[in-house]
Description:
By secondary structure, the chain is an alpha+beta fold. The chain has a single domain (23-261), classed as q2cbj1_9rhob like domain (Jelly Rolls). Helix content is 15%, strand content 23%. The strands form three sheets. Strands 1, 2, 3, 4, 7, 10, 12 and 14 form an eight-stranded antiparallel sheet that branches. The radius of gyration is 17 Å and the shape is globular. Residues 1-6 have low confidence and may be disordered. The site of 2-oxoglutaric acid has 11 residues, from strand 4, strand 7, strand 11 and strand 12.
Amino acid sequence: MTETTAQVGTLTEAHHAAFRRDGVVKVEQAVDPAWIERMLALADRQLDTPGRWAGDSAREGGIGRLFTDRYLWQTDTTVHDFVFRSGVARLAGELLGCERVRFYFDHLLVKEPHTPNPTPWHQDIGYWPFLGRQIASVWVSATDLTVQESSLEFIRGSHLWNRYFTPKAFTKSGSTWAEQNEGDELPDIEAQRGDHDIVGFDVKAGDALVFSAWTVHGSPGNAGAHRRVALSTRWVGDDAVWHPRPASDPSVTQADTIAVPGHYPADDERFPVGWERTPASA
Ligand SMILES: O=C(O)CCC(=O)C(=O)O
């Protein structure tokens, strides 16, 4: 299935250059404003009735709440529509310079007001059962956010380090599988902030941050007075190969897919095509 809505979030050469150079770019007003209400309602629903893959710092006690849920696209109409109709697939495909992108999974990330929990500095690729350079996320905020209110920060250019880091769990109740994975230990970025070229993006509701799966990133807690809601979608491009490992993200395993290790994941059910280049889009 391909997206069908009119194009918002038009990309310029400056967007492409920033993505290639920094491994991240902000696309202002990347989705139609109608998505905002639907994303906020999705957060309400999932907080109320968490899905199978939810992680929730509230279960661990303490103040605030960092809540994540994912892999909802097959059961939730909002997420399904967002993935295939909002235009986020095109952003990933065009910025990655691909002929087509396949969808991997959706990730809802909520931080309630006054939540101290940061999202730890990490690199996405180590969590996922894929390898390849053309793999990216499109993170869309449903709320206006400063970095102090938990918008994302990135190490500019870290996608070109040619390093593969061991993942870190976001909460103790979710993604603990990640920490058994292979890879180098990520240095303590927070303790060495001055040694890195860190960029943080204040965003408006509807802005997207598009970033390579190799770019090191994280976010502080939410020091603000309103809920922070973001929806990240994950896209694999032309050079991606299926690379399951014992401790990669268990939401899609070898048992769930016809993808063959070491090969392009041509599985239209698990990894459906979200966007394809056409003569008109070239
Ligand atoms: O929203 C966050 O705090 C983290 C998002 C993130 O790490 C991602 O989308 O890869």
